[in-house]
Amino acid sequence: MSAATDISLDDKYSRDRGRVFLGGTQALVRFEPGVNEDLAATTIWGTQQVPFLPGAPLKREMGSWLLPVFRLLARFRFLRGTVFDPFGRQAERRLERGLIADDERLVAELTAGLGPERHALAAELACRPEHFRGFGHVKERHVALVATRRDELLRRWRAPDAGPGRAA
After folding, report:
1. Cβ burial 97-130 (10 Å sphere, 16+ → b, else e)
2. Average pLDDT over residues 146-151
3. 13 C-beta neighbours (distance < 10 Å), count
4. Collapsing DSSP states into helix, strand and coil, what is residue 101?
5. 56 in a domain, yes or no?
6. What is the DSSP string of 31-86?
7. 138 vs 53: CA distance, rounded Å
8. Domain membership flag for residue 26
9. How distant, in Å, are the alpha carbons of 90, 129, 133 from that of 71?
10. Coarse DSSP helix, strand, coil percentages of the chain, rounded to the nearest 5 percent
């Protein structure tokens, strides 16, 4: 029996290994929970989710007429991170630059007080950027969630009894 005869159109509903041929929306439905959550929810629910996300921007579908605009923007990629970056002053970009600076200060603080007994706590603090997901309002929500945990861990790190060499 050949491999081609082992493929059925119903595989897209039940198969969990190997290749399955899906359309765009079908692929979104098969994503693992939490993966591309915002895009999947928008595609599947559409505007029905708007009442559940107050303040969230509406997504709009754009036509292929926008592709030349993206090609033009791609030619100016060399401006990223410079004072001439057209998107560099957006709130999201300022947030990202602030997070980078904050992480650099945090790593400097962690390395200054690092010891074997504090390694696990330092590793948990340093892994904070792994928890940032998405763009726009999705990223802002994740940053806020991570900030609460970070503050708690930093209090433990800076506590006088956190380890040897700390002032009492």
Report:
1. eebeeeeeebeeebeeeeeeebeebbeebeebee
2. 90
3. 11
4. helix
5. no
6. SPTTTTHHHHHHHHHGGGGGGGSTTPPPP----GGGHHHHHHHHHTGGGTTSTT-T
7. 11
8. no
9. 21, 30, 26
10. 60, 0, 40
In a domain, 44, yes or no: no
Residue 91 lies inside a defined structural domain of this protein: yes
Q: Which amino acid is at 47?
A: T
Global model pTM greater than 0.85:
no
Tell me the one-letter amino acid at 7: I
Give the tens place of pLDDT for each residue, 63-113.
Answer: 788 889 889 999 999 998 888 988 888 888 899 899 999 999 999 999 998
The pLDDT, as a whole number, for residue 167 is 42
Q: What are 18-69's pLDDT values in tens digits?
A: 665 555 555 544 444 444 455 555 555 555 555 666 676 666 777 788 889 8
Total structural domains within the chain: 1
Q: Which residue has the tokens 């098969």?
A: 30
